[in-house]
Amino acid sequence: MFKSIFTILPLLSALSTFVNADVTPTSPDGSTVVRVGQTAEALWTKDPQGNWTDVTVKLMTGDNFNMVEVTTLAENVDGTTATSLEWTVPDVSPNSKIYFLQFTADATSTPQWTTRFTIAAADGSTTEPTNATQPGTGADIPWGTGMLVSGGNSTSSSSTSSNSTMAASSSSSSASSMMSSSTMSTSAQSTMTTSMRSAASESASSAASSVSRSASAASAAATNNTSDAMSVQVAGGVVALVGFMAGFMVL
């Protein structure tokens, strides 16, 4: 009999080691209440078989058959040496006892979970789970489906994008105004240049016309003077001829 007991004990020990070849979460549990923004701690017993060397820890919600990921808390945690993880409680809604942690590793296909615990608001307020029993089985395990509160990073980027768009639009508008002003300035300069050229041309034309009129007047005056001189000369000649003829007649 004792021989049988001593034979069975090593087998039970080996079986126990085989059964506990996974990390085993121990905290948080059903009595845990953490607040948004606080630092919380996850605890587990380490894997003695060396399979859980790249543990991923996720915050989950939902029922037992339709689990929903809320966010990833950590990746590549060595579950063969580490036994705890500190994480910052995210802002979620609703604030209720509907959240739990899930542990997975590439070397095993069997996830491990904590029991559901409460994430309260920053002021400590909470609400009751929206569902009292599990779907399908009717098990008396309250649950609900939570989510990250929208508005954090998503809204800041949108605002940044909106601000960037507004800034770009403003810059574009300013550039357009500058271009328009430049175009108007260029147009004004062109108009002024044309006007100046036209004025210069008119002035030159007027000056040329004046010179032409002066030249015509001078020419006319010269012609008149020549005509007058010729008339005087002719008159003088006539007088001389008459005098000569008179003298001849006297003789």
From TrEMBL:
Keywords: Signal. Residues 153-201 have a biased composition (Low complexity). Residues 27-119 form the Yeast cell wall synthesis Kre9/Knh1-like N-terminal domain. InterPro entries: Kre9/Knh1-like_N, SRP1/TIP1-like. Transmembrane segments: none annotated. Residues 1-21 form the signal peptide. Residues 124-136 have a biased composition (Polar residues). The keyword Phosphoprotein does not apply. Residues 120-201 are annotated as: Disordered. This is Yeast cell wall synthesis Kre9/Knh1-like N-terminal domain-containing protein.
